[in-house]
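Chain X:
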Amino acid sequence: MSLDPSRAGLHINLGNAYREAGQTDKAITELERAIQLDPSLESAYRSLGEIFAEAKDGNGLRAIYLRYLLFMPQNFEARKELGHFSSP
């Protein structure tokens, strides 16, 4: 089965639906799949970041910012937010 970037949006929608239903693990799986299909989709990273923030998972949140910046290094907001994790 080939990867079809046009289906990434479906995985984002499904991930967000799982998140709203309280099924965080399934939400993360779907959002990760969306990123695998199209690494430039800011909304998938944002949704994952919100999940990690709600869970107070600083390591997960930092990791998702770093991954996003690999594909969108010019994103000032993500760089600014990542700066919060670099401080002692």
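Chain Y:
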Amino acid sequence: ASLLSIILIFDGFRKKDFTFNLIKLVKPILGLIFFIVFLVFWKWVGYFAACAALLMLWLRCIGREKWVISIVATVLVTLGFYAVFVILLDIPVPV
């Protein structure tokens, strides 16, 4: 995600009809910041809590989703990750 954010930022600078528009850079920069925060919090709170926090931030701030959709999606995706990695694949994930 951070690599894609950086690519989007530089791709915007590369275009010939370039006019500096800070509004278009906000979402890629926020995505990069959220991903860095995710990596930092992963060490402190564990993978699943950090994943849930990242997804909630992403849906609310970048995706502009409603609270209900954000909460339901966050819970379902986090439970889905848990089911796939811990239950089905039996991979130890730092909690």
